[in-house]
Amino acid sequence: MTRDLSGSSSNPPEAWLPARRLAQSVWGPIERFLHVEAAGGIVLLIAAAIALVWANSPWHHSYEVLVETPVAIGIGPWSFDFSLHFFVNDVLMTVFFLLVGLEIKREIVEGALSDVKRAALPIAGAIGGMLVPALIYILLNPSGPASNGWGVPMATDIAFAVGVLTLLGKRVPATLRIMLLAIAIIDDIGAILVIALFYTSEFVVMRLAIAMVGVAVLLLLPKLGIRPGGIYAVPIAVIWIGMLEAGIHPTIAGVIAGLIFPTRSWFGKEGFLEASREALDEFQTRIRRPHTDRELIEPLAQIAQAQREALSPAFRAEARLHPWVAYFIMPVFALANAGVHLGGIRFDAPDFTPVMAGIVIGLVLGKPLGIVLGGFISIRLGLASLPDGVNWGGLLVVGAAAGIGFTMAIFIGELAFVSPELLSVAKLAVLLATAVAAGLSLLLGRFVLTDARLGPVAGVSASEIESKTEYWTSENAIEPTQ
Fold first, then answer.
1. Using an 8 Å Cβ cutoff, are 403 and 441 in contact?
2. What is the DSSP code (8-state) at residue 82?
3. Global pTM value
4. Buried b or exposed e, range 133-168, using 16+ CB within 10 angstroms
5. Which of 37, 155, 350, 436 pairs with 20 at a CA distance of 20 to 30 A?
6. What are phi and psi for residue 71, nearest 5 degrees?
7. Residue 26 has what pLDDT?
8. Tell me: the pLDDT tens digits for 174-229?
9. CA-CA distance, 432 to 228, in Å (whole number)?
């Protein structure tokens, strides 16, 4: 039996070696795949493809039945009835928006949005990248029910966009990657505001008081010394119910909770080392004398607490939620929403071409045009400057990648269109735009980005880029989720 350097067996005591080897041979490749940065986007794409094929197969009715499967939660006389589609879009996606809120707060506290000078360019680019697509859509759909979809081409899917840039490998400098992440985060803020202000049902102010109670409790818990854990789910649920009752989309509760989460660690890195050493010394003292396992629980608990509080609660929550969102919630959302039955679409309908064109042109052309235009205006006004290692060609690649709307675009489409026919057209347009934008960004990247730098157009060496990326990167930056 093999042992590791600590002297402990490399296999658990109950493990059967042949079975463990079989499990490792199966799980090993999966685990390596999940560590690939583009893996989340790939899983999302597979789920969308399955939904699209299933919805257009001879068994498409089973897809519709599954999505609309009724679900009920009840306690005594109280019950809450909803469909599986509602559960995915309004409950699971609240967790997605919680992660978005945590990401936004991290970027504001210590990331690319923490400094006005660094934030000016992505803010200007993101604003342009939202306004130009919305304007294109409105010009093509000025009136009628179709005009309500102007928010659809404003959105960017972080997971897909970052995943596409990852496929370009070392051609993408760190500055450009952080630029895309910052623009996508600001884009998410814009999408959240659009959902809250324009895509809500009848607003009931008095019922909003329920959500305010949840917010107050969520703010109070850290003041009472109660660190984030399972108990935080209670006020978040209250906020969710309050938002739903007030007519605001309940997923906004996730964003609010994410922005409230504490960003200061209790022990910190140095405190973790000190507390761990003290607990280990106590552990060693106890095992040297007659003892029971119960006596070892206290020092072990102290080590666990020090480990838990070495990093901020917001950072820990983000790290824990990321795999669930990337590999479960977003693929399930795609599976439940990307199944467009082409046989049910009237391609000769009056609104088909304007809606399709508004979304596709808005995402594929409007996004890069708006981002480059916003950046150009901010630079000419002296509000921002291009970071070292980033030129206009690189910014154009970022703009093309930002045209990948997918998750958020489909989500806004669900809110924007009451008509099932218009919603199907919008979803089809988002899927088409996502494919075209991904291909365009890869094609541009191959020509514009060369050998880990911005090529001959930039006139900047790889060593210069590497030495100056501190302008955009921070030592605390972590991988994006979406």
1. yes
2. E
3. 0.78
4. bbebbeebbeeeebbbbbbbbbbbbbbbbbbbbebb
5. 37
6. -130, 140
7. 56
8. 778 778 888 888 888 888 888 888 887 666 777 788 889 999 999 999 888 888 88
9. 41
Tokens of 32: 């390596």
CB proximity list for 402: less than 8 A, separation 6 or greater: 129, 156, 161, 180, 183, 184, 187, 367, 368, 371
Measured distance CA(129)–CA(123) in Å, rounded: 10
Which of 107-116, 278-287, 313-322, 325-334 is predicted least confidently? 107-116
360 in Cβ contact with 433 (< 8 Å): yes
Handedness of CA 479, 157, 169, 112 (dihedral sign): negative
Q: Alpha helices of 112-207 — where are they, by DSSP H?
A: 116-140, 158-167, 174-198
Residue 1, SS3 per DSSP: coil
Structure-token match 């079975």, residue found: 19
Calpha distance 75→61 (Å, rounded) = 32
Say whether 49 sits in a helix, a strand or coil.
helix
H or E segment and range at residue 81: strand 78-83
Question: For the chain, how many residues are written?
Answer: 482
* CA–CA distance, 471 with 222 (Å, rounded to integer): 33
Structure tokens at 224: 């009472």
Other residues' Cβ atoms within 10 Å of the Cβ of residue 449: 25
Distance of CA 150 to the CA centre of its chain: 22
Spatial contact of 264 and 312, defined as CB atoms under 8 Å apart: yes
**Nearest residue to 325 (alpha-carbon basis) of 261, 252, 256, 254:** 254
Please state the separation of Cα 19 from the chain's center in Å: 36
The H-assigned helical ranges of 36-113 are 39-55, 60-67, 84-86, 93-110
Would strands 78-83 and 70-75 be described as parallel, antiparallel, or unpaired? antiparallel
**Helical pair 252-260 and 208-223, crossing angle rounded to 10 deg:** 20
